[in-house]
Amino acid sequence: MRFTITRRTTFASVAAVVVSGCLWLLGTAMPVAADGGPHVGLANSGATTLAADSCGGCHRAHTAQGEMLLMQADEVALCLACHGETGTGATTNVEGGVQFASTNDGTGTGTVAGALRGGGFIEARIDTAHGSRVSYPVRLSRATYGTGFSSLVGVTAAGTSVTSAHMDLDGAMGVVARGVAWGNGALNSGAGPSVSLTCTSCHNPHGNGNYRILNSIPEPTGTGFVATDAALDVPDGLLPTGSGAAGTRNYTVQWGRTLKDVTDGTYVNNGFAGTPSASAGDYWRKYLPWDGVPTWNGTGITAATGHAGDVPEYVPGDADNNESYRLAIAGWCAGCHSRYDGGVSDYITPTGDAIYTHRHQTSRTECTQCHVAHGSNAGMIGESGRMTYPDGSAPTGVTSGDTTTYLNSRLLKIDNRGTCNACHDPTGTVPYTGVVTTK
Ligand code: HEC
Ligand code: HEC
Ligand code: HEC
Ligand code: HEC
Ligand code: HEC
Ligand code: HEC
Questions:
Q1: Each residue of 66-117: pLDDT tens digit?
Q2: 417 lines ligand 6 (CB under 6 A)
Q3: Quick check: 26 and 104 in contact, CB under 8 A?
Q4: Which ligand is closest to the CA of 91, given by its number?
Q5: Is the distance from the beta carbon of residue 210 to the nearest atom of ligand 6 less than 6 Å?
Q6: What are the pLDDT digits (tens) for 374-417?
Q7: Is 126 near ligand 2, meaning CB less than 6 Å away?
Q8: Running DSSP on this structure, what letter comes out for residue 5?
Q9: Of 112, 173, 210, 274, which one is least surrounded by beta carbons within 10 A?
Q10: What φ, ψ does residue 351 adopt, rounded to 5°?
Q11: Distance of CA 227 to CAs 18, 233, 285, 361, Å?
């Protein structure tokens, strides 16, 4: 943890410099592009102006401290100067996993609007222990009507240390970086190449119009890493045009397009009004953030159109399914984890790979249904905790009192394998009630 403290002190001092460089930029009317903050593609590309003012917020021509002429010694420090716990240029704090009601003042103690969709790198607020579910009638392959589930995974009022994260930012004691791009590369090329990941392996700092400025071709550095040839674009909505909270996106798991929608609690969709509470929202259905267990719109499952299985799904093309986004984000994750991209029959048909031989489908269930993108605080106490990584390496255990938790919650949103029960009842015995049950 000593490392963390030193690092944060550095951020506080660099933040002031970074922000002063970007104030003009942030205070100016931006073109309506899909990107947020200083990451506006059309401005940084020179398409709308050849007098960009943004570059100096992150680069120095002659006195740069980091590679790529960055004004900070390293790129992560640059990002966290605004997006960190003690950052000062953004509303999102990816270390603590929250979005503030207004730009972070550098103390990290401002009013919290809600929990971030990606979880957090040091602490997260996912209520991993209290998943709830509601049953719906579905058509089983056995030709009778059975039960499927749809769940809600809520938000806790305070942050808890993460037990897994995509990058090790919590210092020496917590998450242990494995540094392997699991499943990347050709069949039978091992568990995956050794790589190092930074924020820009996944995000384009200059903006590109994609959802969350995600790189069209995600790529960490490392020998043997195989990047995709084709662009994996994830479509985005328009950036809101107001000023302050009304012009800032909602990055929480609550309803609403803008941060103002969240702080006011006024946004209503599908019959669910938002709730002005930092602990409102749902991590489970965050591709279409619900603020209550969703009611089925009634159009998905019928004897004629319902698929055979025990999981309720909207039919392809149903607007409530938000399919284009779900498929795009799953394809994007597979830009690095290529051998995780499973089709619906892969549970029977072998892939030919010695490690990733059979796999759960991801063509109907996107990766971010089960996983968060940054970090999770889920607890893995038993077998789920001891499970080795694909290369056979053991997880790291942490004992506190009598309880041993393993730092390998694998970015999942529910403790142990509650993830499976949130959709499946393998016993086929839970009746259809339509009533929400919380465990
Ligand atoms: C939010 C911070 C940020 C801003 C604003 C920014 N850059 Fe960058 N830039 C980076 C980072 C981080 C890298 C290195 C990582 C990468 O290439 O993605 C980089 C890399 C570059 C590179 C080399 C790699 C490449 O992508 O071509 C160029 C050239 C560059 N920036 C130019 C600019 C110019 C010109 C501007 C202003 C119009 C600008 N940058 C604004 C953060 C920024
Ligand atoms: C492995 C890829 C990956 C890495 C590494 C990564 N991100 Fe993200 N990030 C994502 C994805 C995917 C999302 C969208 C999450 C969602 O909506 O479910 C996201 C979302 C965000 C958001 C919006 C808030 C949220 O939580 O949804 C911010 C801000 C952000 N990232 C900043 C960062 C910074 C700063 C770093 C480095 C410290 C970083 N990211 C590292 C993939 C990554
Ligand atoms: C000068 C401050 C500043 C710096 C430095 C900075 N950002 Fe941002 N970034 C912002 C602001 C402001 C937003 C708008 C949302 C908010 O308030 O957090 C934003 C938004 C984002 C988003 C969401 C974009 C979207 O599509 O809505 C991502 C992802 C992100 N930043 C990642 C990064 C990464 C990665 C770095 C480092 C390379 C970085 N940022 C550096 C200020 C900054
Ligand atoms: C149905 C839920 C679910 C979906 C969808 C899902 N995962 Fe996972 N993932 C898990 C579980 C559970 C684990 C823990 C290891 C296990 O049980 O095999 C895991 C583990 C992982 C790991 C860690 C290495 C390992 O295998 O233990 C990676 C990497 C991963 N998933 C990537 C992905 C990617 C990429 C996608 C989308 C293409 C995806 N996952 C979709 C449930 C899911
Ligand atoms: C730029 C490449 C890249 C992208 C894109 C990417 N990952 Fe990863 N992922 C990695 C690397 C590298 C690791 C190993 C991190 C470590 O432990 O050092 C990893 C680790 C994981 C793990 C295991 C975490 C643990 O507990 O050890 C899961 C689960 C996972 N990724 C899921 C996802 C999902 C879901 C997405 C899409 C939102 C995604 N990844 C996108 C590179 C990527
Ligand atoms: C978001 C919902 C969801 C979650 C969470 C989920 N599954 Fe699935 N699972 C599905 C869907 C949808 C199918 C495909 C069903 C079909 O094709 O009829 C499926 C298929 C399967 C199958 C193939 C047999 C069958 O019923 O088609 C197995 C086995 C399975 N899942 C096990 C698991 C396990 C183990 C977990 C926890 C790691 C899990 N699932 C988590 C939705 C889910």
A1: 999 998 889 999 999 999 999 999 999 999 999 999 999 999 999 999 999 9
A2: yes
A3: no
A4: 3
A5: no
A6: 999 999 988 899 999 999 999 998 887 888 888 899 999 999 99
A7: no
A8: H
A9: 173
A10: -80, -20
A11: 32, 14, 29, 22
> Residues lining ligand 1, CB < 6 A?
38-39, 44, 52, 54-55, 57-59, 68, 70, 75, 78, 200, 205-206
41 near 206, Cβ under 8 Å? yes
12 part of a folded domain: yes
Regarding the beta carbon of 83 and ligand 3, being less than 6 Å apart is answered: yes
36 lies in some domain = yes
Residue bearing the CA closest to ligand 4, atom 27? 389
In terms of residue numbers, what domain contains 73? 1-84
The answer to whether residue 160 is domain-embedded is no
**Total domains, the chain:** 1
Atom 21 (ligand 4) nearest CA: 410
Task: Indicate the pTM of the whole model.
Answer: 0.92
SS3 content of the chain, % helix, strand, coil (to 5): 20, 15, 65
CA distance 156 to 125: 5
